[in-house]
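Query structure, 164 tokens:
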């Protein structure tokens, strides 16, 4: 079951990416949008997902990133946080992290990389309330660098949808 985001956003998909039905299951809670790359890597299709939540007021982006890595561990086994960095301005904080893990896809074990960006937005209706949007790229280790630029282009287009 897909979900809606806590704040409306707009974005543009890069060429070569197609909207897809969001995955359903306990390992992908709250996915509101999904897209897949037009070229699979030996049976695995790189994908971008968009999810969001209104976290507790005291939750930091690092804590939300830890929770995301833990949810992935619960379904994929060992997960390594290979990189994490806080970015953005104080009024618009963001966090990036890269997770590496290995899981069985179909009948084959795949080494995967998930790049995540956590963006914090003020709620349009209640500026005291903060929503966090999680953007994730999941790709095989072999394909990750080839699609990372597209993902970065996608992230740069994400902004609040003001309805204008």
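Result returned for the query:
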């Amino acid at each position: 079951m897909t979900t809606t985001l806590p704040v409306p956003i707009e974005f543009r998909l890069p060429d070569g990416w197609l909207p897809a039905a969001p995955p359903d299951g306990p390992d992908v809670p709250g996915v509101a949008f999904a897209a897949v790359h037009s070229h699979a890597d030996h049976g695995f299709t790189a994908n971008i997902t968009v999810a969001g939540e209104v976290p507790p007021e005291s939750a930091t982006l690092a804590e939300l990133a830890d929770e995301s890595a833990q949810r992935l561990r619960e379904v994929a086994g060992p997960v390594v946080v290979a990189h994490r960095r806080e970015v953005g301005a104080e009024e618009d904080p963001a966090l990036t992290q890269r997770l590496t893990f290995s899981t069985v896809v179909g009948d084959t074990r795949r080494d995967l990389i998930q790049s995540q960006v956590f963006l914090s937005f003020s709620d349009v209706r209640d500026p005291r309330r903060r929503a966090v949007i999680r953007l994730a790229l999941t790709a095989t280790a072999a394909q990750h660098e080839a699609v990372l630029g597209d993902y970065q282009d996608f992230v740069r287009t994400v902004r609040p949808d003001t309805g204008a």
